[in-house]
Design brief:
Blueprint (H helix, E strand, L loop, with lengths): L3 H13 L3 H13 L6 H4 L13 E8 L2 E6 L2 E7 L1 H5 L13 E6 L4 E7 L5 E5 L7 E6 L3 E7 L7 H13 L3 E7 L9 H14 L6 E3 L8 H8 L3 E5 L6 H9 L8 E2 L4 E2 L7 E4 L5 E4 L21 H6 L17 H7 L5 H16 L5
Helix pairs in contact: 5-11, 7-8
Length: about 375
């Protein structure tokens, strides 16, 4: 079964593929290239004006075969210009779904990406292998729909909070969807309690929380309204029903999977991220399910800033720089004690803080 990590492998295979023929073609191209195109001169200017004369397109998908770019209704299978591959950046992948790029057309099917435009938003996670770079999931997105399920697989508040933080950090609006609410009556007692507590605590926060069922259609009209005219990326762990919701909302036929009986975990069905246009305006991105989602480039002292309720309370803490974990006269701990602060949210905060301080791996 193909996973999100397999999808990342597709990208690595593409970016790292350097045949003798490719190297020869790139060398010839660079020799013909004017000096303003060369890497040493690119550092002197933010953007080479000549690059902006090439056709502009949007990245629709990335596979081991190449990068599919749409420009003026035409699709091209693209490779990256050699100089772009040499650039050292904090992102592991140079191009991602939703990127706006400039391409040099080779023929009616193929082209070369010569420039990546500035991104107004980014959804990214920590690269699983190096831990020192981010892996871009999507760019130029307006909102992130974080899909979880009432059961099968079990709802994970800490994972939801990591997505929320990544969305806000990347300049996107988070939206939380709880799918499979038609199954809650048959859930275990602990699953029911977690579901109701999550709905109670998270419905008061500064983003939409929508209860949906891809099976019965409940809540889908509200999802359609939120997607209209926006670029929306659906993310979440495997098996929560992202593709099923997209199919139900947009009348598409993306592949859907089932839950693995023994583990009650989701099977990966979406194997590569893809962007497609909506009839009523906007775009939708379906992404492969994840096993882990680590936050990139956030220091321990920044964690609290992504929890507005904690930021409000900490003004009454005795000590500046209070971590809200053990200090005396801590207003946050007092709120936890009298249950005026969500225990789910506080647990997420502490979990994130501990992982950032000890550099633990993400689950």
């Amino acid at each position: 079964m193909t996973s999100f990590d397999d999808y990342l492998t597709h990208e690595e295979e593409f970016y790292g593929r350097e045949t003798k023929e490719n190297k020869k073609e790139r060398k010839i191209y660079q020799q013909k290239d004017r000096s303003k195109y060369k890497k040493t001169d690119q550092k002197k200017a933010v953007v080479d004006p000549t690059l902006l004369t090439f056709p502009k397109g949007r990245v629709l998908s990335i596979t081991s075969e190449g990068i599919t770019v749409n420009t003026d209704g035409r699709e091209f299978l693209c490779s990256l210009k050699g100089s772009l591959k040499k650039e050292k950046k904090k992102e592991k992948n140079l191009v991602t779904i939703g990127d706006l790029v400039r391409i040099e057309i080779i023929d009616d099917k193929e082209a070369t990406i010569v420039h990546v435009e500035d991104r107004y938003s980014i959804l990214a996670r920590t690269d699983n292998l190096t831990r020192r770079k981010s892996h871009l999931i999507a760019a130029n997105v307006d909102q992130v729909v974080i899909v979880v399920s009432a059961k099968d697989p079990t709802l994970k508040p800490t994972l939801v909070d990591r997505y929320i933080i990544s969305a806000k950090k990347g300049n996107m609006k988070p939206i939380v969807l709880i799918n499979k609410i038609d199954l809650i009556d048959d859930a275990l007692e602990e699953e029911k309690n977690l579901f109701h507590l999550f709905v109670h605590d998270y419905s008061t926060l500064d983003f939409p929380l929508i209860l949906v069922s891809a099976k019965t259609g409940e809540g889908l009209d509200e999802v359609r309204k939120l997607m209209r005219g926006k670029t929306t990326v659906f993310s979440g762990q495997s098996g929560v029903g992202k593709s099923s919701i997209i199919n139900a909302v947009l009348n598409t036929d993306l592949a859907v999977g089932s839950i693995v009986g023994r583990t009650r975990k989701g099977a990966h069905t979406t194997t590569t991220a893809a962007l497609f246009p909506l009839e009523e305006g906007g775009f939708c991105v379906d992404t492969p399910g994840v096993k882990s989602f680590g936050l990139y480039d956030i220091e321990p002292n920044e964690v609290a800033s992504y929890f507005p309720e904690i930021m409000t309370l900490q003004q009454n803490c005795k000590f500046r720089g209070c971590t809200h974990t053990h200090e005396p006269d801590c207003a946050v701990l007092a709120a936890v004690e009298d249950e005026s602060l969500s225990l789910l949210r506080y647990h997420s905060y502490v979990s994130l803080l501990e992982r950032k301080e000890t550099k633990q791996e993400w689950e």
